[in-house]
């Protein structure tokens, strides 16, 4: 990012009174704890500040990246030569619409799935139990159709409001979001920004919902390397198989490149054992993909997003 562009973006953000910092270490904002500095780190508090921040970036031609909880993102060791926009400020109060046996909950894209699950349980609403423990935001969950334990967000999603590349507001029903396994229409349109999502949940029993959530959380603690920085499941599930099982069958449990390692607890996870770089993780995943393809014929695809 050349100095003239930086000066123009800085001036635009300052003139609009928008909150931002410069040279912000991205490792502090991702669950992998990896990544160099962002030239600009923008923290809009609401949808209007977000729109103005995006306008500033577009006006000067600056790159931007929309970030939620950083739980599925691997930033380059060199950082990001543009503006990383933290969407976690988009967490307005929950709006509820009571139906006969269901309730529609509308929440901001920056709300964590954990908080949304807790709200649903406290309101005795069932349907989100599968999402308990997924460490992302609602916006990120929409973007990749997050799922676990046989459930996916598309199963309960009603509609999504977003800004398009021209910063126009739209709302689409789930039927028009092209949601599939770890993908959605937003993945193919990365300049679109999710503002809020509405989920349709059924009325249930709060105690039963809590018990199911606790069971899923316990399964995660038992089977996943939650004690180490990671970005969750590293590879998408190939059709007819499981990535972790294939990696284990290829003798790659504990396989290490630099500070990155295939978890010995769960082979579907790459963990940061300390000092891992983006280059370490990329090199490790490429080698794992090569070995798995040669030994099993399956082609693994990374689930985590590598941002350079």
TrEMBL record:
Protein keywords: Cell cycle, Cell division, Cell shape, Cell wall biogenesis/degradation, Cytoplasm, FAD, Flavoprotein, NADP, Oxidoreductase, Peptidoglycan synthesis
Cofactor: FAD
FAD-binding PCMH-type domain segment(s): 33-204
Keyword Transmembrane set for record: no
InterPro entries for this protein: FAD-bd_PCMH, FAD-bd_PCMH-like_sf, FAD-bd_PCMH_sub1, FAD-bd_PCMH_sub2, MurB, MurB_C, MurB_C_sf, Oxid_FAD_bind_N
Keyword Ion transport: no
A GO CC annotation given for this chain: cytosol
Pathway(s) per entry: Cell wall biogenesis; peptidoglycan biosynthesis
Cellular compartments annotated: Cytoplasm
UniProt EC number: 1.3.1.98
MF term (GO), any: UDP-N-acetylmuramate dehydrogenase activity
Record-linked SUPFAM superfamilies: FAD-binding/transporter-associated domain-like, Uridine diphospho-N-Acetylenolpyruvylglucosamine reductase, MurB, C-terminal domain
Positions of the catalytic residues: 182, 233, 303
Role of this protein: Cell wall formation.
Protein's UniProt name: UDP-N-acetylenolpyruvoylglucosamine reductase
Record gene name: murB
């Amino acid at each position: 990012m050349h100095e003239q562009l930086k000066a123009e973006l800085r001036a635009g953000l300052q003139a609009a009174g928008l909150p931002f910092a410069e040279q912000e270490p991205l490792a502090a904002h991702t669950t992998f704890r990896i990544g160099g500095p962002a030239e600009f780190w923008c923290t809009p508090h609401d949808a209007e500040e977000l729109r103005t921040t995006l306008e500033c970036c577009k006006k000067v031609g600056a790159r931007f990246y929309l970030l939620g909880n950083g739980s599925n993102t691997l930033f380059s060791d060199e950082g990001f030569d543009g503006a990383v926009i933290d969407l976690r400020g988009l967490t307005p109060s929950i709006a509820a619409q009571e139906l006969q046996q269901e309730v529609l909950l509308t929440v901001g894209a920056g709300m964590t799935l954990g908080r949304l699950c807790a709200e649903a349980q406290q309101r005795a609403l069932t349907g989100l139990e599968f999402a308990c423990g997924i460490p992302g935001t609602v916006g990120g969950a929409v973007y990749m159709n997050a799922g676990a334990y046989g459930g996916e967000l598309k199963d309960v999603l009603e509609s999504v409001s977003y800004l398009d590349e021209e910063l126009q507001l739209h709302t689409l029903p789930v039927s028009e979001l092209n949601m599939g396994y770890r993908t959605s229409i937003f993945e193919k349109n990365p300049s679109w920004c999710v503002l809020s999502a509405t989920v349709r949940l059924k009325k249930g029993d709060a105690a039963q919902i809590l018990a199911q959530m606790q069971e899923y959380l316990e399964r995660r603690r038992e089977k996943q390397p939650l004690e180490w920085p990671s970005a969750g499941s590293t590879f998408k599930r190939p059709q007819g198989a499981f990535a972790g099982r294939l990696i284990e069958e290829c003798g790659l449990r504990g396989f290490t490149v630099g500070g990155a390692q295939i978890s010995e607890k769960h082979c579907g996870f790459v963990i940061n054992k300390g000092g891992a770089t983006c280059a370490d993780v990329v090199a490790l995943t490429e080698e794992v993909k090569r070995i798995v393809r040669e030994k099993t014929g399956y082609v693994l695809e990374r689930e985590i997003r590598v941002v350079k």
